[in-house]
Amino acid sequence: MIFNQAGLALSCDSQATAGLFDETVNAYLGFSLDTGKHVKALLTAEPQMPMANVLMGYFYQLMGSRNLVPRAQKSLAAARQHGQSATARERTHMDALDAWARDDLRGATAHWESILLEQPRDILAIKLAHFGHFYLGDPLNIRDSLARVLPHWSDQDSGYGFLLSMYAFGLEETGDYGKAEAQGRRAIDLNRHDPWGVHAVAHVLEMQERYAEGIEWIDELEEAWSTANNFRYHLAWHRALYYLDRDEPERALQLYDETTWDPDSREYLDLCNDVALLARLDLAGIDTGTRWNAVADVLSQHSQVHIMNFIDAHYTLGLTAGGKSAAAEQMMASLESELSENKNPHDSYLEVAARVGLALSTAMIAYANGRFDRAVELMLPIRYDIQLIGGSHAQRDLFAQLLIDAAIKADRLRVARGLLAERKALKPNNAATERLQTRVLAALA
Ligand SMILES: [Fe+2]
Q1: Which residues are bridge partners to 2 per DSSP?
Q2: End-to-end distance of the chain based on CA atoms, in angstroms?
Q3: Is residue 345 scored above 80 in pLDDT?
Q4: Angle at 142 between CA 243 and CA 207, to 5 degrees
Q5: pLDDT band at residue 104, thresholds of 50, 70 and 90?
Q6: According to the CATH classification, is domain 1-137 in 2.60.40?
Q7: What is the mean pLDDT of residues 125-139?
Q8: Looking at the predicted structure, is the pLDDT value of residue 181 above 80?
Q9: CA 135 / ligand 1 centre spacing (Å)
């Protein structure tokens, strides 16, 4: 029997292949640009290794594109074909990939958690469960999934810093900022090349309105995170956000051009960053020129390949704001027909779409088309459920801002005033809050 670095049995032919597997997972955890190269080397070394094929399938799913689901299914078939003597843990990974490729992220996440009850040192299952809880809008599990496994690890273990950064993010998303910051900083002390650790502390600084410290934190660690894969754009996005938060929107626009917008990127996270930042710049009264059109051009090539409500809400906004509202409406028409035909009760994408995603994305189209009353009508009843689309509090704050803006523009001023009072209680030292307040007061006067 061959074991990997965490002591887990791996069905493979040699210790060298187990080493390649660990290196690939490690590259994934570190957002390495070389992750693709690692997994190719692994599959070249041992094309029949069940977990190598599962890992490849997971990577296809992580791209968030429906076009890649058939490839994930092909990887799963290869894993099953060669996995007759796979361990129970490996078979559960296959079941998780199977569920995920059927749009059942909830089921996949349950499989990863069931692995962790037996094998809390399976860092791949830990990271994927973290991803699942994040995009299922389940912050308590983002936190407690890590709390459950951490007693089985020590700071002598490779990958321990990655666990602390995940735990830090879970603590942050549940509002335990003090502990989150301590764990995140400890993660970075152990390993500076951990973009998720940089990110967890960045979120604490954002939520606590410590914008100058946030800029300093991201700047200081830039040599470590700037070599990461496309996740580096998200860290650059956080830095631009701090500048917006402290009322320096021109600097944020400059950072959009220089550090977040990549015309060649087709990654959903990058495109969501771009949409979210442009929308906030519009709210700050900055002229964004033709930038929406450039984003919408890219989005329109990918508007039918979504598998997450979080993506839909951003893409519909970006498409409509960039002059491609027909593509956005087509996205929602296809979603509506999927909802009416849905025969899979375990499809967590459609489950969330029915509850909140369809209404939110339709509201984004209405908003970007200047139908503000309609946007308010759609968003008000679901605003506390928007968490279910996944993402972070900082990301979803966009929708809170757009709702207030729409309420002002729709002349629903008492609604706007109420929403603003909520926001001010949570974010008193935020330039967006200030700008919205000025407008609400002027309109009421
Ligand atoms: Fe973030």
Answers
A1: 10
A2: 76
A3: no
A4: 25
A5: very high
A6: no
A7: 97
A8: yes
A9: 12
Cα of 74 from ligand 1 centre, angstroms? 32
- What's the gap in Å between 395 CA and the centre of ligand 1? 7
Tell how many helices (H) and how many strands (E) occur in the chain. 25, 2
CATH of 263-445, one of 3.30.1490, 3.10.20, 1.20.120, 1.25.40: 1.25.40
pLDDT at residue 99 in the model? 96
Cα separation, 427 vs 431, in Å, equals: 9
| Residue 237 CB contacts under 8 Å (≥ 6 apart), including other chains | 260, 273, 276, 277
The rounded Å distance from CA 235 to ligand 1 centre is 7
Q: At what angle do helices 195-207 and 211-220 cross, to 10 degrees?
A: 170
Confidence check: pLDDT of 303 > 80? no
| Segment 241-286, tens digit of pLDDT | 999 999 999 999 999 999 999 999 999 999 999 999 999 999 999 9
Q: How far is the CA of 292 from the centre of ligand 1 (A)?
A: 21
* Distance (Å) from CA 234 to ligand 1 centroid: 6
Domain ranges, ordered by start, for the chain? 1-137, 138-260, 263-445
| pLDDT given for residue 343 in this prediction | 74
Task: For the chain, give the mean pLDDT.
Answer: 96
Q: Ligand 1 center to residue 206 CA distance, Å?
A: 9
**What's the gap in Å between 313 CA and the centre of ligand 1?**
16
Q: What is the pTM of this model?
A: 0.96
The correct CATH number of 138-260 out of 1.10.3330.10, 2.40.50.140, 1.10.760.10, 1.25.40.10 is 1.25.40.10
CA of 89 to the centre of ligand 1 (A): 31
Task: State in Å: Cα 273 to ligand 1 middle.
Answer: 9
* 152 DSSP 8-state letter: G
Tell me the residues surrounding ligand 1 (ion) with CB < 5 Å: 392
Instruction: Summarize pLDDT for 380-414 with one digit per residue, the tens.
Output: 999 999 999 999 999 999 999 999 999 999 999 99
Count Cβ atoms within 10 A of the Cβ of residue 233 and give its class: 0-12 exposed, 13-18 middle, 19 or more buried: buried
49 Cα–ligand 1 center, Å: 34
Place of tokens 């090349």: 193
- Please calculate the CA angle 442-444-445 and round it to the nearest 5 degrees: 65
Q: Assess contact for 130 and 200: CB atoms under 8 A.
A: no
Give the per-residue pLDDT at 54: 98
Question: How much distance in Å is there from the Cα of 437 to the middle of ligand 1?
Answer: 25
Q: How far is the CA of 134 from the centre of ligand 1 (A)?
A: 11
Per-residue confidence band for 347, with pLDDT thresholds at 50, 70 and 90: confident
Q: What is the pLDDT of residue 305?
A: 64
Q: What's the CA-to-centroid distance between 394 and ligand 1, angstroms? A: 7
